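Lab notebook: predicted structure, single chain.

Context: the supervisor wants predicted structures on file for every construct in the current expression panel, including those that have not yet been purified. This is the next one on the list. No modifications to the sequence; it matches the entry in the shared construct table.
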Amino acid sequence: QVQLVESGGGLVQPGGSLRLSCAASGFTLNGYGINWYRQAPGKERELVAQLTRTGGSTNYTDSVKGRFTISRDNAKNTVYLQMNSLKPEDTAVYYCNARYVFRDYWGQGTQVTVSS
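Prediction complete. Output recorded below exactly as produced.
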C-alpha cells in the first residue's frame, strides 16, 4: 500500500524550530520530485518547498527562504522539512507530496502552530 505519513508538527513559540518528517511506504521516494505544501485556515494551499527528482535542486517560496530547508534521506525513505525562525504566519497544516509523471502521492498533513 502506497502511503506518505507526516510527523513532527506541533505548537512552537515564535523564533523556534521544528523538523517535519514524511516517511514513505509502498514505494521508493528516490526518483520522485518532493514538495511540501501548507494550508492555513481560509487560505489556498501554498507550495512551500521543492526538491527535484534527482535531488540536485531545491526551490522555496519567498516567505520561507533562508529559514526552511528541504532534504531527503534515501536510506530511510524519508523526506524532511527543517523549519527555523518560525513566525505566526507559518501556522498551517503541512503536507508532503511525491510526484513523478502520473504518480502523485499525498500525506495526511501535520499541524504546525506558531504562537506565544
